[in-house]
Specification:
- The chain is α/β, with parallel strands linked by helices.
- The protein folds into 2 domains: 20-261, Aspartate Aminotransferase, domain 2 (3-Layer(aba) Sandwich), CATH 3.40.640; 267-410, Aspartate Aminotransferase, domain 1, CATH 3.90.1150.
- The chain has helices at residues 20-31, 39-52, 63-73, 91-98, 117-123, 143-153, 208-217, 226-230, 232-235, 254-285, 331-342, 358-364, 372-380, 392-410, and strands spanning 56-60, 81-85, 102-106, 128-131, 156-160, 168-169, 172-173, 182-188, 201-205, 291-293, 300-301, 307-311, 381-384.
- The strands form 3 sheets. The chain has a 7-stranded mixed β-sheet with strand order 1-9-8-5-4-2-3, with helices on both faces. A 3-stranded antiparallel β-sheet has the order 7-6-11, with no helix packed on it. It has a 3-stranded antiparallel β-sheet with strand order 10-12-13.
- The chain is globular.
- The structure holds pyridoxal-5'-phosphate.
Amino acid sequence: MGLFHMRDELLKLHVADMGEEEVAALREALAGGWLTRGPRTTRFEQELGRYVGAEQMLGTNSCTAALHLGLSVAGIGPGDEVIVPAQTFAASANVVVHCGARPVLADVRPDTHTIDPGHVAELITERTRAIIPVHFAGTPADLDELAELADKHGLFLMEDCAHAIEAQYRGRPVGVGGCPATRFAAYSFYTTKNLITGEGGMLACRTPEDRQRAQVLGLHGMSADAWQRYSSAGGGGFRLYDIIAAGYKYNMFDLQAALGLAQLAKLDANWERRRERVAQYNELIAGVEGVTPLAYPAYVKPAYHIYLVRLDPALLKAAPVATDGAPHASPVRDGVINALRRRQVEAYVHYICLSETEFYRRLLGTDDKTTPVAADLARRSITLPLFPTMAPADVEYVVAMLKEALSEICG
Ligand SMILES: Cc1ncc(COP(=O)(O)O)c(C=O)c1O
């Protein structure tokens, strides 16, 4: 165990920074007696909009819902293709399927794991309608190159900003506030994200018309929301509604927004705390043989959402460790993750390559050769703990345990 004693408790991959501010905000919201969408949601939309440089914001109950709404508002449907990186959470591609359209999986850059504009260019057909760049781990995708492709082919971008509220690309915020080709941007406030409401999301729209359509589609297709229908404060007097589409139930509610407002007040301070931990990790990891961290291009401000290292390819040839036999299993990676867990460090994989998942292999006929870079990176990537309240000593512990785990599994 060297200089480090084994911890008694598991060091979690992520711990939400929830304190008195959030408790007070929830108590106040509960006491107000109005729990669903109402004034707090509107305020959260406005304040987050100011933060990301966008005016047309719509609170939703998840980022997945926001992504689905964006595609639905744009009329994406059967016969359409939408290009999505293979290195992302399933939701980024699943929403395309929910619309009856076909996700086309693109490969990623080996240094940042963001969508590779060169591969996107090869995948564009006359059926392509949109590209969904994912700002993986909080590092912006190559928005200028993607915007150029979008303009050339008459497509729009919908940015998946689930990891990237604070991120900037060439001095501009990611999302509709920064990139003119972006019609929608979707944010996540899931419990592991940079701003947390438990579950929750936000759709940023370029135009008020799109936002209006998204609001109606996200609330049963009703032409007015409950706050407007019941409350004199919402618009003055009784308002009859109509049903103008078979919409969904995707709205944010005021308890979420109360948490969101309290979390927004801490967003920059928590970004700074994660930035410090990432800098510390990078310094220590430089002395660990066999692993490389993600790269951060000079022209981006990363959101530092997760911290992951890639095992050197040579290490994957180490003695095999038993796995569950899935096609995307990676015995050495999984062995290192388990060795870390035995040392009280929770580690994870972001993400298995979508081209190799059971569903997308069946639907699209893809495999590891469809997006070879993403497939390879997924087999070599290990996410280590990162969260704002993490102590410098925690980072030292993780790196020491990583060294031990590597020497146990890879020799
Ligand atoms: C890249 C990415 N996109 C979309 C989502 C979906 O977010 P939500 O859980 O808020 O629906 C996630 C969530 O983990 C994600 O990581």
